[in-house]
Structure formats: structure tokens, C-alpha cells
Amino acid sequence: MEDKLNSKSYVAAILQAVTVGFSFLAIKIALNSADALYILAHRFSIAIIAGLVVYILGYGGEKLSIQDFKNIIPYGLIYPISMFFFQTVGMKYVSSS
Q: FRET partner for 51 with CA separation of 20 to 30 A, picked from 59, 61, 62, 91?
């Protein structure tokens, strides 16, 4: 049972690393034809649509209490906003290779 759990965590870590790696490449290509903030707006729009689809289809995880939600919301806002912003703006000035 523990081996199956470990293999799932390794697959998830590899999938996350590949996703982040390809996002750097995609951002660098997109910056050739659009402004950094324009790309950022599209990334958030796509993320909101994907989140709504997951919510509507009922694939959400555990139910959170109001206190849990209040504790999580700062991290849920600060991390993606800062990561997407700094990644997009930083890629404007740095090569992806």
C-alpha cells in the first residue's frame, strides 16, 4: 500500500515539474506576440474557468470550514498571483534556456 502511495507522489511531482517547465517555454514564446500583463490576464481567466469546471462537476476535495478557508485564502491568493506575475515579467527579460 505504501509503495503505491509513494509511486503516486513521484508521478505527481514529475507531472508538476514538467508542467512548470513547459509553462516557462510557453510564456517565452507568447511574449513574442503579446504584452506580459495581457498574457497574465489570460492565464488567470483560464485558471478560473478550469476551477469552475472542477467545482461544477463536483470533483472538489474535502469540505472546508469557514476558519479553514480564512486560514488558506491568503496563501491561495498570494502564491499564484506572485508566481504568475514574476514568471511572466521575469521571462520578458531572461532567456528560457
A: 91
pTM of full prediction above 0.70: no
Structure confidence by residue, pLDDT tens digits, 51-86: 889 888 887 677 778 898 888 888 888 887 888 888
> Is residue 48 classed exposed, middle or buried when 0-12, 13-18 and 19+ CB atoms within 10 A define those classes?
exposed
Q: What is the DSSP letter of 15?
A: H
3-state helix, strand, coil in the chain (%, to 5): 80, 0, 20
- The per-residue pLDDT for range 11-46, each reduced to its tens digit, is 989 998 998 888 888 888 888 898 888 888 888 899
Q: Mapping DSSP to helix (H, G, I), strand (E, B) and coil, where does residue 60 land?
A: coil
Beta-strand runs (E) in 1-97? none
Nearest to 43 by CA among 59, 23, 19, 22: 23
Which grid coordinates belong to 45? 481567466
